[in-house]
Amino acid sequence: MNNGPFSRRQILTAAAGMSASVLTPGVTRAADPGAGDPKDRPQSPKRFKISLAGYSFRQFLDQPGQPGKMSLFDLVDLCVKLGIDAIEPTAYYFLKTDDEYLYDLKRKIFLAGLEISASPTRNNFCLPPGPGLDEELEAVRNWVDVCVKLGAPAIRVFAGKAQPGAGRDKDFANAIAGMKKACEYAGSKGVFLAIENHGYLTETADAVIKILDAVKSDWLGINLDTGNFVENPYENIAKAAPHAIICQFKTEVIKKPGTKERQPADFAQIFKIIREAGYRGYVTLEYEGTDPYKDVPLYIARMQELAG
Fold first, then answer.
1. Domain of 64: which CATH number?
2. How many Å is the Cα radius of gyration of the chain?
3. Which end of the chain is more exposed for a tag (fewer CB within 10 A), N or C?
4. Pairing state of beta strands 262-264 and 252-254?
């Protein structure tokens, strides 16, 4: 008896065909974001999910133990009003991290119909072995645990800062060692780490990919910050995008290499680049201007138009 447009036999036959294609030798599945060839990613979605970074309202938000004019709970309400898909609650703006606070926030986000795109933190893995590095690693591990409780899938991390007298090669080696330890713990909890192109050791896409290749972790990808490359922004975005698991969208890009001079970003071009690269993650507005209440809704609206 057939009660619908497809019979049970047709459904089972189609399922068997799918299973065969997955299990047949020589047929490869899409690579994980942190491993394999980025070209093997599935086709990019017709519509990107849009998120908003807490950093966009940095001058108003709570800080640990210091209430501000705005809380992460208020940011959730704003995300709902903007009609976006997700929120990026940055570690810097959690008033508290006890279970009661975290679970109240998690409940608020879920009931608002939002997702958590990521939860950035700060770190310095360029430090040499010793108490300082141990503290940095412990802080990242603690934030992994926070993200597990929140249900946040990924954490933005940095490579670190230049150390006096060390030199770039030594700093690079230290950063790789620290990143490997951090990825080992994060991966054991099912949380991705995403290294941002954020200055020292990560000035270009090639520099960030060099770190990925050295760490070799399935739980490490790129946090693609579209505004942080020091030269040739669109070329570097295109090179980094296939390895990205987070995309933080900036409204400006560098204008002249070697300077701090900036110019408005070409929104359409960036969306085209990440789509063609097969990027499938969230696109998160990280606004760096001074009037987020005025500007953020305008930028979000433009991003929503381009999201598909």
1. 3.20.20.150
2. 21
3. N
4. antiparallel
How far is the C-alpha of 228 from the C-alpha of 233, rounded, in Å? 8
Contacts of 173 (CB under 8 A, 6+ apart): none
Q: Around Cβ 28, how many Cβ atoms within 10 Å?
A: 10
CA-closest candidate to residue 220, choices 172, 254, 250, 176: 176
Cα–Cα distance, 75 to 4 (Å, whole number): 45
- Decide: helix, strand or coil at residue 7: coil
> What's the rounded mean pLDDT across residues 281-290?
98
Per-residue pLDDT reduced to its tens digit, 162-180: 999 999 999 999 999 999 9
Residue 76 belongs to domain spanning = 30-307
Query: Is residue 106 situated within a structural domain?
Result: yes
Q: Is the pTM of this model over 0.85?
A: yes
For residue 149, give both structure tokens.
């409780």
Summarize pLDDT for 97-139 with one digit per residue, the tens: 999 999 999 999 999 999 999 999 999 999 999 999 999 999 9
Identify whether 88 is part of a domain. Answer: yes
